[in-house]
Amino acid sequence: MGLGKTVQLAVFLAGLHHSGRFRPSIIVCPATVLRQWLRELRLWYPPFRVIVLHESQRSGNAPRPSRQKLVQLVKNSQAGILLTSYDQLRLQRSELLAVNWGYAILDEGHKIRNPDAEITLVAKQLATVHRIIMSGSPIQNHLTELWSLFDFVFPGKLGTLPVFRAQFALPIQIGGYANASAMQVSTAFKCAVVLRDLIAPYLLRRRKADVAQQLPKKTEQVLFCSLTTDQRDLYRSYLASDEVQDILNDRRNALAGIDILRKICNHPDLLQRRQWESTEKYGDPVRSGKLVVALKVLQHWKQQGHKALFFTQTQQMLDIVERAVQAAGFRYHRMDGSTAVGARARLVDDFNGNEQVFVFLLTTKVGGLGINLTGADRVLLYDPDWNPSTDMQARERAWRIGQKREVTIYRLITSGTIEEKVYHRQIYKQFLTEKVLQDPKQKRFFKSKDIHDLFTLGDQYAGASETAHIFSSLHGGLEVPLDPDSVAVPAEAAGPAGEVDDAKILRDLFEGTGVMSALDHSKIEGANNPEALNIDAQAARIARRAAAALRQSRAACVTAPVNQPTWTGRSGGSGAPRFGATSNQRLARGALSEPGSSEAAPADAGAGEVRRGTAGLARFGGGQAGTTGGLAPSSSVLLARLRERQAAVSAAASSAARNDPEVEEAHELSQRIVAYLEEAGGQADSHAVIQHFAPSLPAAKAPLFRQLLQQVASLRRNPSAGKIWVLRPDFVTDR
């Protein structure tokens, strides 16, 4: 993740050795980062005797001690450290488990997240009580993974796995859905608090925000691409096939169907790879909406002088991308699972140091783990992984300590398809991690859905995506402006990595390729940021007060005669505040008497105090308010007076609320919303509302606008027109 974990552990072990408390230790890490660990340990503490137990360290036919002798060398040294990979730990367990290690350190320790995997069971048998796991993503899919990692560090602390699942994992998962009951939400919160408190003493968590001053700016955007005609036809054809029906009826494994849909999204030729791979037309970019966008992005980055990382999930798709990159004339390196471990470090070093190499083509699981690729300042994630940490690790190859330039990351998602569903599950899993490790009181966005949801082709929203609709309530909105003129960047700050260049790329993609919309992924990740939640809560409170004031004001106006001017703040009587208000007494008096009536209002009565009802009798002030002569008023009259006085007090409180500048501003905005909806016939679709108000509404006011809109209108689904905002009856003018 680029937070300096390797250096921290190297210095920690050096401190132990310097104080005389060090014993021979073992460090287990992915094979890709063995060389990096060796370099850092030698750099930060040369007295260590570091021995690497891995085949990649053999050079040609040079003699090398046996594995048993290497382990013995470390064991007999006062400064010995054994570096090995997870595979070697599993294969050489007989020698490694027999040693009483000082410390056992697992780098990228989420490798043991499967509690029943062979490597997990072997790692938990290491003979030492001093155990450390280094991981940027301790929870990747579900809470069982957290249990597995924690059980290595502190065996038995979280009980047995069945008990943990029943008492913690299941309640927290169920309560995290948007359609969970109040009891389920409360139970999830309390369980998450207990779990967080249990693990907190043994968890040292550092985030990129902690080292933000040492890192350049990062921009991460999701580009929602459309399917080509060929892709859409294939997608619909497969959804209508008997195979999908068998999957939905539990007669066939769903993973095979999901794999086919993902291949269609990446490139339809992947379905017939063996038949067409040898032909020239295989992998033609024009048949894949995402590949067209990806090549366009690479061309822009090349022209602007950037270096790029291109990640995809499979070697088969990487083959197609490699063909396209070759045809475009880009210089590149490639690394995937078939690349020899010994050659990987050389490729990384050459890419970082050679300015002539423009793009590094990588599979996500090989190129996204542990390596340092700060030579690049642009990252493109071609397809999403079910595991959010896989994509997260990939993007962190460039945005890490040592990077000097601003970093831009593009995620390509085919809109409405299986890929957007995968992306949603990524976000849900990230929120689950935050719920346990940081804030148990998380905002809920996603509903519990079954496998039928995966085998659908989503609606084409007007200029938006399903993801944008799910997160439409976020502060500031998610939409990325596609007009470079709308991005305010000083000329001196807008270099090759400036915001204006990124905006120009997006506009070009939007106009010339199949990009439907672009969202700011960073805002989604920060959806549960306490500051953003406080802003939304404050906006909701102001909106409720403004709506209440508007509702009372309209109710007061309805009871006034039609010939009485509405209160403007200086003139008029209809709807004027009852207490402490300055009104136009001439207009007020003129409306007090029926033609030919000898009744007159007291000179000191306010406009609200002397208003007549439909019977023409003064409601307040004077001795004629509902009584005759000097007779005592009846009980019904007294109750009527009491109700009206209570209404007057409520109106006064409403008036006081409107004196608050924030409430007054919200009140005016709510009136504008009501007026717009009335002019539109009492209803309007979401797109029309946004188009009308967006030009005059600052982004900072977006949360307040959303809350006000929800107060004065209700959202309904129209089969033909999509989502419609309908003005609530309380705000419909009926005069």
UniProtKB/TrEMBL annotation:
Gene Ontology BP terms: transcription-coupled nucleotide-excision repair
Domain Helicase C-terminal: 296-452
MF-aspect GO terms: ATP binding; ATP-dependent activity, acting on DNA; hydrolase activity
Entry-linked Gene3D superfamilies: P-loop containing nucleotide triphosphate hydrolases (3.40.50.300), Tandem AAA-ATPase domain (3.40.50.10810)
SUPFAM superfamilies, per the entry: P-loop containing nucleoside triphosphate hydrolases (SSF52540)
Top-level taxon in the UniProt lineage: Eukaryota
Primary residence: nucleus
Name of a matching Pfam family: Helicase_C
Signal peptide (from-to): none
Cellular component terms per the entry's GO annotation: nucleus
Keyword field: ATP-binding, DNA damage, DNA repair, DNA-binding, Helicase, Hydrolase, Nucleotide-binding, Nucleus
InterPro entries: Helicase_ATP-bd (IPR014001), Helicase_C-like (IPR001650), P-loop_NTPase (IPR027417), SNF2-like_sf (IPR038718), SNF2/RAD54-like_C (IPR049730), SNF2_N (IPR000330), SNF2_RAD54_helicase_repair (IPR050496), WHD_Rad26_CSB-like (IPR058951)
Domain Helicase ATP-binding: 1-156
UniProt region (Disordered), positions on chain: 589-610
Localisation: Nucleus
PANTHER family, per database record: DNA EXCISION REPAIR PROTEIN ERCC-6-RELATED, SNF2/RAD54 FAMILY MEMBER
Family the entry assigns: Belongs to the SNF2/RAD54 helicase family.
Protein's recorded name: Uncharacterized protein
Organism per entry: Coccomyxa subellipsoidea (strain C-169)
